[in-house]
Amino acid sequence: MSTTSLTAALPAPAHAARLREALLAADFTADGLLELLGAPAYAALARSETVPALRATRGDSPLETLVRLFLLQGAVPAERAGAALPLKEALADGWIEESDGEIRATVDVRPYGGPEGQDWFIVSDLGCAVGGAGGIGKKDEGVVLGVGGASTTLAGITVRTPVSSALDLGTGSGIQALHAAQHATLVTATDLNPRALGFTRLTLALSGAREAELLQGSLFEPVDGDTYDLIVSNPPFVISPGARLTYRDGGMGGDDLCRTLVQEAGERLNDGGYAQFLANWQHVEGEEWQDRLRSWVPRGCDAWIVQREVQDITQYAELWLRDSGDHREDPQRYVERYDAWLDEFEARGTKAVGFGWITLRRNPAVVSGAVEPSIVIEEWPHPVEQPLGDTVRAHFERQDYLRAHDDASLLAEHFILAPEVVQEQVGLPGAEDPEHVVLRQNRGMRRATKVDHVGAGFAGVCDGSLSAGRILDAIGQLTGEDPVLLRDRTPQAIRLLVEEGFLLPAGESREG
Predict the structure, then answer these.
(1) Residue 144 has pLDDT above 90, yes or no
(2) Which long-range contacts link 181-184 to residues 24+ away (Cβ below 8 Å)?
(3) Per-residue pLDDT tens digits for 108-135
């Protein structure tokens, strides 16, 4: 990508509605692409391999023309482009340019399927929306990326309850702002890079979404003292020596940018509001990583922090050197930059880097001191089922429930087994009794937990009809165990099953 392309004016959204109509008429959508390209070529495109897609678009249909133009970023004859696009308006607004009878795209336009089947389009810089480390070509300072795994992950974990106000901090090409526009009355999008704000405007316009308030600046500086019901951010979280690339390097030492973002988010949330981030954090010699993250949680907030991946410092440096295309440059320069990364980590005592999700919820009861904050920090590298927004919200609701119920009141409650939970028995073939029983969730976080025979029996009969205490009394009668001892030792196990979503409260207690 040339420097000229990063300084050129972005397209105008004046005729975005007309362009959208043409794209939809040609079936230039996520489903349309899959049908045209086929699964192998579609998957290859996500790996930055374009040859299968080129082979699948040898025809002259409007859809093939649009794929060649906006996704593969090749030249197409003006006559073909005119059959697929409102050519006059697209040229006038700057979406495309003409030279010697051929048309080229000035920006990447990528179909993106919304959570309810919406046909959206993400607009970004050329060569920076195809997946895979490095994308197409080398990424330069100021570039604005399109859809990637991180952005879709954040969109999937975000709580999607209707809200009055939402803030997309570090909006990039506007993916999170586009999602938020579906359930927030007012969306504010900020970015340090003014080019990113321009792309966000285009993404919203071409997707048929409401306009957002667009503000330039770093972190929370542009929003002054405003507060929000929802804050989302896929920030430039990469821990690097310097701030060479705006889209990924935060410009602060170590993980200070992520720490600052999390710590300052608390006072920007309305009561009951959520702040959700993707982040990197250092694993430092002599320090537990959980303690490091616990210190980030702002006063007045509950928190759920999930570490999804850990890389040693060499893996981490190599990942981001490939991302920026440095491995394709002068070998000596690559060695110098690799050395600089390792020097940075050594100076900070960093042995590894963690990646994951951070969710805060501002809790008025925590603010007032009526209850202690719930801060759950865990490592969960296993597969999950997106979207997880409802799972995230339910986590905090369960924390509220458990804080309001001591052991005695738990025994008086009625529970039901979550519908997605199945039981697995583990033991030697032919054995009369299993060695242990596993409860497993088939949705959401897909957790699994081992339970003893009492726990398995208890969970199996939880249909809301009997209180926990009465179920334990019945189990005691069947097994010959002392019901008093069962009532004494089981509440902690019930609490864990409720906390992890295996058991759901069935409503107000009916034990009298």
Answers:
(1) yes
(2) 181/209, 181/210, 181/212, 182/114, 182/115, 182/116, 182/118, 182/209, 184/229, 184/230
(3) 999 999 999 999 999 999 977 544 333 4
Q: Output the pLDDT for position 243.
A: 72
Distance CA 202, CA 197 (A): 9
Longest dimension (CA), the chain: 90
pLDDT on residue 133: 32
Which residues does 202 contact at the CB level (< 8 Å), separation at least 6? 10, 11, 13, 16, 107, 123, 174
Query: What's the DSSP call for residue 426?
Result: E
Amino acid at 430: G
> 342: which residues sit within 8 A by CB, 6+ positions away?
313, 314, 317
Average pLDDT in the chain: 92
β-strands 448-451, 436-441 pairing: antiparallel
Q: Tokens 């316009």 correspond to what residue?
A: 205
Give the amino acid at 29.
Answer: T
E strand or H helix that includes residue 50 = none
The DSSP 8-state label assigned to residue 487 in this structure reads: H
Would you say residue 9 has pLDDT above 70? yes
pLDDT of 406 reads 95
The answer to whether 136 touches 108, Cβ cutoff 8 Å, is no
pLDDT, one tens digit per residue, over 214-254 is 999 999 999 999 999 999 999 999 999 877 777 788 778 89
Alpha-carbon dihedral sign for residues 184, 188, 192, 193: positive
3-state secondary structure of 352: strand
Cα angle, residue 468 at apex, residues 466 and 470 outer, rounded to 5°: 60
